[in-house]
Write a structure and sequence with these properties.
- With 144 residues, this protein is α+β, with helices and mostly antiparallel strands.
- It has three helices and six strands, in the order ααββββββα.
- The protein has helices spanning 15-27, 31-34, 112-138; strands at 39-41, 44-59, 63-66, 77-80, 84-100, 103-108.
- A four-stranded antiparallel β-sheet has the order 1-2-5-6, with no helix packed on it. The chain has a two-stranded antiparallel ribbon with strand order 3-4.
- A hairpin with a 2-residue loop joins β5 (84-100) and β6 (103-108).
- The chain is flat and about 85 Å long.
- Mean pLDDT is 79; it is low at 1-13.
């Protein structure tokens, strides 16, 4: 972004500020972010790779007003609203590309913590469902 401030006419959104923000946000998905700087060790080159996820939301407002000269029966009035937004960028390592004289291979990066948490979540869900199913069979039948 630039150091200079952009001004807009009343009721116009700050398109320059929005464009600058979008350019910076989209730069996060650049190929240089996904593939890290190659690391050379003797005759082997290692290239780290990452998955980059971006999310952005925004909103803008406007303003209106009346002039006492145009509407003598009403005093000058004005209303306005603003805007805002937010975003999030997440990245995580997914693999390492290794290029050596023996060839090129891709070694995945496995996050053991995520695998363990997914397993515990699935186990908890299965135990909960088994408990609910066993309770249904244990209830007495309602006779009418």
């Amino acid at each position: 972004m630039t150091d200079e401030m952009t001004t807009t006419q009343p009721g116009e959104p700050g398109l320059d500020a929005f464009q600058d923000t979008m350019e910076e946000f989209l730069a996060a998905a650049d190929v240089r972010v996904v593939y890290g700087e190659p690391i050379q060790h003797e005759d082997t080159i290692i290239i780290p790779t990452a998955e980059v996820l971006c999310a952005l939301g925004f909103g803008v407002g406007s303003g209106i007003g009346t002039n006492a000269e145009e509407h003598p029966d009403h005093p000058s009035e004005g209303k306005g609203s603003g805007g805002g937004g937010g975003g999030r960028i997440l990245s995580r390592p997914v693999a390492v590309v290794i290029a050596s004289p023996e060839g090129i291979r891709v070694e995945p990066v496995v996050d053991i913590t995520k695998v363990a948490l997914a397993g515990l979540t699935a186990l908890g869900f299965m135990v909960g469902m088994m408990f609910r199913m066993s309770r249904r069979h244990a209830l007495p039948a309602i006779e009418g």
